[in-house]
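User: Predict the structure for this protein chain, please.
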Amino acid sequence: MKQADLGLNLSVKRTRKRRFLDEMNAVVPWADLVALIAPYAPEAGRRGRQPFAVEAMLRIHFMQQWFTLSDPAMEEALHDVPLYREFAGLDNWHTRLPDESTILRFRHLLEQHKLAEQMFKLINELLIAKGLLLKAGTAVDATLIAAPSSTKNKDNARDAQMRSSKKGNNWYFGMKTHIGVDADSGLTHSVRGTAGNVHDIVEANALLHGEESDAFGDSAFQGADKRADAKESVTWHVAMKPGQRKALDKDDPIEGKLDQIERIKASIRAKVEHPFRVVKCQFGYVKVRYRGLKKNTAQIVTLLGLANLWMARKKLMA
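Assistant: Here is the predicted structure, written as structure tokens:
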């Protein structure tokens, strides 16, 4: 990226945020994504205010995901942070900047034409072409994403599409994100968004891409191979229930071997936690931003596609 032209010859400190944007700038397939979105974007006219370039709006959209910025916050950040303008290619001080309505309309364009799913697919095709996303095995899991439970809003009601779910001794209100990841690399290839009360096993077989021979899941997926939508070509390796494993006698030859098998399954299954870590810890996404499953699922699909690029960035840059 070019340094913002402020008319000053100053050295730029390579901060963590600048390093992050430089790396993502290098690995995101901008040209392919722009070509995907361009047919749906508004065209420049002869009169009136001209639309912003698709790539500039896409870069702004991705910065919203990476730094958990709302539309008004993104507009203000473009005015306040030179690094953001530089990344978006709007670092000329004579260039007008998108307002929050423009940023909102671009997101609605992506939602209307289901472009988040298509971008996710395009990114994965790139990773497959690079040999980074294999198809031999899949690990599946789900995570809860919290939603506001307050009724202090204009509707005086909670989001009707969100539900409560109990985990351990605690209750959570929100939605669930179900993912299927490559058992070798940990890269996500399938995403499903549901209400928080949908059991993990319901979406288990829908997370398989159909070309794997083995699937891995925690104890919540016991019985996945017996469901009506189970695939005969897939062998499920599901973890033993915690209480049963705790009761194993490690000194017994047979039960000791069973414990070793559980360790091996757990080491493979752990790969499914990596995308959740990136989305929640690296990108800071811990709570839904919108109302309804459709908009929030589209955002999660975008985040997981970007998480794939982040996790594979070193190999892609090499």
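DSSP finds twelve helices and six strands in the chain.
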